[in-house]
Amino acid sequence: MCCTDPEIEATILEFMPLAHDLYHKGLGLEYYQKLKELDSTECFLHNRVQSDGGFCSRYEHRGLICRLFGFSARTSKHALLELVTCNTIKTTQVLAYQHSVDEISAGRNVLTMNQYYMRLQSIDYEKSKEFFPINIAILHAIESVLHYYAYR
Known about the structure:
Elements: E1 9-10, H1 16-24, H2 28-37, H3 64-68, E2 73-75, E3 81-83, H4 87-92, H5 94-105, H6 113-123, H7 125-128, E4 132-133, H8 134-150
Helix pairs in contact: 1-8, 2-8
């Protein structure tokens, strides 16, 4: 599962909506401190207990990488489109997975991850050009929002 994968990276911009939401709920500084002290590479937002609607404790403000995983394609080294997913999705959602693979194979118009990231870059190139481990991206997003409101 990607929530527990230490290799998952994201941009700061992906987590700006989360950072703003936390700030406006009075949780920005608390989350910032917890992330500063965190020693795990598992996503800070991952909730192992929750099972419906995803495992994200802040599902409505999850990052773009989280939104796209399992729902978008990438171009393989052989220039073929392939679904971006993991074994968990392949084995627990077999019919949906196979339907998506069939749709891609049939040549349906599917947006790829890089197209979404290009759109993200058009919002703020600086905050979307560098990828960080997911917890660092969240930390920097919160830091950016806290900085903004501190000097506003």
